[in-house]
UniProtKB/TrEMBL annotation:
The protein's required cofactors: pyridoxal 5'-phosphate
Gene that specifies this protein: argD
Family listed: Belongs to the class-III pyridoxal-phosphate-dependent aminotransferase family. ArgD subfamily.
UniProt name for this protein: Acetylornithine aminotransferase
GO molecular-function term, one example from the UniProt record: transaminase activity
Annotated binding of pyridoxal 5'-phosphate, by residue: G106, A107, F141, D226, E227, V228, Q229, T284
Top EC class of this enzyme: transferase
Annotated positions binding N(2)-acetyl-L-ornithine: R144, T283
Length: 410
């Protein structure tokens, strides 16, 4: 089957229908641009859902992949390997962590974090202890495995998969009083996203994060930060926690960590990691040589204060342009986020119609994301050129005009 024979209709024939992709099939990319099968060009502000941190075909990542592909691809964890050790060493040098567990995705990283939290409590409180409660927050998203979708705070993702794992409590996000009331000696962990991603791009209040840290200390519970979406430079710091004054006990990373090559990581201290003794957890592909080589090249690229400052400057440019568009169109009730994780909340009479805005933008040659049905989400390359930002906003302007001319759905 050649490229011309593969169309959107092929998806319906051969793929499990858990996705609903548009008719467009991108076939190549360069920087912040994509081209489809018909050679139509798009500006990519979706970034593979915050994955393509350095855009498409970044030379440092391509070189790392090609060099490692010429040496060795896979060993499994029966053996260790040089790229995994070098990447783990680099991550521990740059973060609070002392030890790292590699896997293949954010869901796997969170699965490992939740298992480790319970195992740590079991090790320190005894097998008969009821210290197993994990507290999460409404609107959160932590992955699609049965455990992670249960910890996640969105019922739509776990409906139909019951019974789900027990011992999980969901509380309102940014509500200190409810967290104080809920925490007890049964709580083994609190997990939070520094910015709710799928839940609408809602940043955590600094006071809320500090309260979570203090309450975890008080109740001998672990604080887990899910930085799958906020990590790898997305907010203008290597990890978002670094600018909050709050240090977690466990941090999960994925998405942008591999710049497009699948990899996940769970970072923690040596004391906590000791509960994952030999045979207690594992993965066949985790720590894959190709993935770790690419991720190391990405981390080395991001370890640059000037680049991180540029992320924040580009964020300001996006926000300035979005507010200017909204002055003309009044399509959004709020524009928020940090760094290059930006959400625009649709105004009341446009609620539930983010999908229509994405469709209109694609018609204008612009790739966007949603964060729920009411929020347009932008997660572009961290090095997107200013000219591409300006052109993207010109295309978004046309898309907003198109949407407004059609009017809101009743």
């Amino acid at each position: 089957m050649n490229e011309a024979e593969v169309t959107r209709a092929t998806f319906d024939q051969v793929m499990v229908p858990c996705y609903m992709p548009p008719d467009v099939i991108p076939v190549r990319g360069e920087g912040s641009r994509l081209w489809d099968q018909d050679d139509r060009e798009y500006i990519d502000l979706a970034g593979g859902i915050a994955v393509n941190a350095l855009g498409h075909r970044h030379p440092a990542l391509m070189q790392a992949l090609q060099e490692q592909a010429d040496k060795l691809w896979h060993l499994s964890n029966v053996f260790t390997n040089e790229p995994a050790l070098k990447l783990a060493k680099r991550l521990t040098e740059l973060t609070f962590a002392e030890q790292v567990f590699f896997c293949n995705s954010g869901a796997e990283a969170n699965e490992a974090a939740f298992k480790l939290a319970r195992k740590y409590a079991w090790d320190h409180q005894g097998a008969n202890s009821d210290k197993h409660e994990i507290i999460s927050f409404k609107g959160s998203f932590h992955g699609r495995t049965l455990f992670t979708v249960s910890v996640g705070g969105q019922m739509k993702y776990r409906a139909g998969f019951e019974p789900v794992p027990a011992g999980i409590t969901h509380l309102p996000y940014n509500d200190i009083a409810s967290l104080e009331s809920a925490m007890s000696e049964r709580t083994c962990a609190v997990v939070m996203e520094p910015i709710l991603g799928e839940g609408g791009i809602i940043p955590a209040d600094p006071a809320f994060m500090n309260a979570a840290r203090a309450l975890c200390n008080q109740h001998q519970a672990l604080l887990i930060f899910d930085e799958v979406q906020t990590g790898a430079g997305r907010t203008g710091a290597l990890y978002a926690y670094m600018e909050t004054g709050v240090t977690p006990d466990i941090l999960t990373s994925a998405k942008g960590l591999g710049g497009g090559f699948p990899i996940g990581a769970m970072l923690t201290t040596r004391r906590i990691a000791s509960s994952f003794g030999f045979g207690s957890h594992g993965t066949t592909y985790g720590g894959n040589l190709l993935a770790c080589a690419v991720a190391l090249a990405l981390i080395d690229t991001l370890d640059n204060p000037e680049l991180m400052a540029e992320v924040k400057r580009k964020s300001d440019l996006f926000l300035q342009e979005l507010h200017a568009l909204n002055q003309r169109h009044a399509l959004f009730s709020d524009i928020r986020g940090r760094g290059l994780l930006i959400g625009a909340q649709l105004a009341h009479h446009w609620q539930g119609q983010a999908r229509r805005l994405l469709d209109a933008a694609r018609d204008q040659g612009l790739m966007l994301l949603m964060a729920g049905p009411d929020v347009m989400r932008l997660t572009p390359s961290l090095i997107i050129p200013d000219d591409d930002i300006h052109e993207a906003m010109t295309r978004l302007d046309r898309a907003m005009n198109q949407l407004i001319s059609e009017g809101p759905e009743s």
